[in-house]
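queue> holo job accepted (iron/sulfur cluster)
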Amino acid sequence: MKTAKQYIDSLSKLHSNIYLLGKKVNDWVNNPIIRPSINAVAMTYKIAGESENADLATTSSNFTGQKTNRFNSLFMSTEALVKKIKMQRLLGQRTACCFQRCVGMDAINAVYSTTYEIDQKYKAEYHNRFKAWLKYVQENDLCVAGAMTDVKGNRGIAPSEQADPDMFIRVVERRKDGIVIRGAKASQTGSANAHEQLLMPTLRMREADKDYAVSCAVPTDAEGVILIYGRQSCDTRKLEDGDIDVGNFNFGGQETLTIYDNVFVPWERVFMCGEYDFSIMMVERFAAYHRQSYGGCKPGIGDVLIGAAASMADYNGTRKAAHIKEKLGEIIHLCETMYSCGLACSYEGKQTLAGNFQVDTLLANICKHNVTRFPYEMCRLAEDISGGLLVTLPSEADLRHPQIGSYVDKYLRGVADIPTEARFRMLTLIHAMAFGLTAPSYRTESLHGAGSPQAQKIMIERETDMAAKQKFARSISGIDEREDPYA
Ligand code: SF4
Ligand code: FE
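queue> job finished
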């Protein structure tokens, strides 16, 4: 298995085509805007080497029995699903941002079980190919980015009806040795920091959309792949001197717009090609896993936010005020509710035909739906506790300035024995989490990541047995025959 250092060295060897702020970046691994996001992924390698966390961060491969990073593993029990959530909470606590590697882990499990079922129906070879690719990923401890979200064009019409046929990734050529794909995936988490992209379709397909029903693995530096780096609010603070104003100096998230401009994919890396009737299975399985994931990472990041809010109350001298205690209690309640949902859908997981375990779909959607709301309220409460200085604070350069620095230090002090600099650091940390410097923000990412709220509402409705609930009500009310407790 790779160490964090070996992971970063391996990224330097890729010939990825990355654009940032309108320029091609060659030494992208050392770019100050990109590097924090690499550091966050590096933590997924670091914790795997820590003896106290080995049980959460590693497992044994069900192919080879060899030790494998959990991010590249199949969930072979409900216990494995629970450990995944605990690992994600731990990583959220230690990075306070999106550590990116979960999308690949969730994609691996969705593609594994779906390819098995495609092969059962069509006598195809996808599952064995996928297993061979996954073995290669495990043996080399590669970082995999799951790639689902197509750019989608007009949301009201199907892929094959779009004015521009490239709004969803499609197969433009079938050759003897493989396929050629074209299209783009948007909001791709950690894609530049991954060695491999695992592509999946983004929605249900019909026969006319056959060419769009494609799943395959593509090396990040394959010819024709272009990664255009997504902006984050205040990202150019990372180009300034000092380490205070960015709030979270070491870590950050990453999203790209990834272009696939006529990319050749050999058949051994193709896991779905035209089986449009299985597109929705792959989509929904992946979505359920990733909605579960948010019950791990978001509480972990929430722990840092809670710690920062409590520290600000200490520094402001308000910690003992009844309303502050009440607000801190409320943030904790919201945070632990998200975690409880992540655990619940894991414990209720069921085995797929392929053998790995799928989370409970209804509970995973409930989990993510709470995550579309709770971080907003948690940020609101943390901002309330912090005070308005959160958005009016002068810069680190002002604090360090030879003439005005002493004024800043004197007048922005809270409790006398806490250095003003500590207040600066805690405020910028909360600012980074709430407003989006360390990742897409804790708020908006929680809203749209792993599917926007309406996507969960649809699943919640579909997964609910309303007829059974109505039957309970009819029986209790006496419309139907009442149940006799003594019969
Ligand atoms: Fe992992 Fe959370 Fe980032 Fe998704 S948003 S990749 S679950 S850390
Ligand atoms: Fe996400």
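queue> The chain has a mean pLDDT of 97.
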